[in-house]
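User: I'm preparing a small set of examples for a lab meeting where we compare how different chains pack in three dimensions. I only have the primary sequence for this one, and I'd like the structure in token form so I can line it up with the others. Please keep the answer compact; I'll paste it straight into my notes.
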Amino acid sequence: MDKQFWLEKWQRNEIGFHQDEINPWLVNYWDHLALNPRDRVFVPLCGKSLDMLWLCSIGHDVIGVEISQRAVEDFFTENNLKPECSDQGKFIRYESDNLTILCGDFFDLEKNHLRNPRAVYDRAALIALPESLRRRYIDHLNSILSQKTEILLVTLEYPPDEMDGPPFPVTEDEVREQFSDREKIKVLGEQDVLDTSPRFKERGLTSLIEKAYRIL
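Assistant: Understood. Below is the structure token output for the 216-residue chain.
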């Protein structure tokens, strides 16, 4: 799985991973993080997620990164926002009020691009990656963040032999292993969402557990 895979997904509008409403885990559990209203929040592999608007609406400065220029431009167009655009090294920077999206490769990010976020919101980044890339993703994430940066992570668990990702199943054991250098990993909630996810039933799944973690 490479960059072209995701670029083609967006070009063909094969974006079943996109949600047309604010993610309930975000709304229900965001206040479990120890943040101030104006703290900066980083959203990796953000697509055109409406969750970024919700985070802005409660006062946060939000910075996302997304490889697909179509996704970024659709986000601003669909939400009637007119961003200022500028070149920033390997990225095109789209900025509107307290929201910034860097269009480019997550793995090209450096600390100076993010300006020291206090939190990360990952709903669809880790689970978008196969196992072979997840360790690289977390290592790079750690390299561009402060050790004090909190993470709200949302994952999916399902029998791996029943469906080929993405999204990929990420178990609690893997989360705890991948983030073993962190001080605390807490499961905030979990729910079987198969009955409300017909596209996954159609792909043959018999179980689909969504979990939210606070990692600090």
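A couple of notes for your slides: The beta strands are 40-43, 61-66, 84-88, 91-96, 99-103, 119-122, 150-157, 185-192, 209-215. Residues 131-144 form the longest helix (14 residues).

User: Perfect, thanks.
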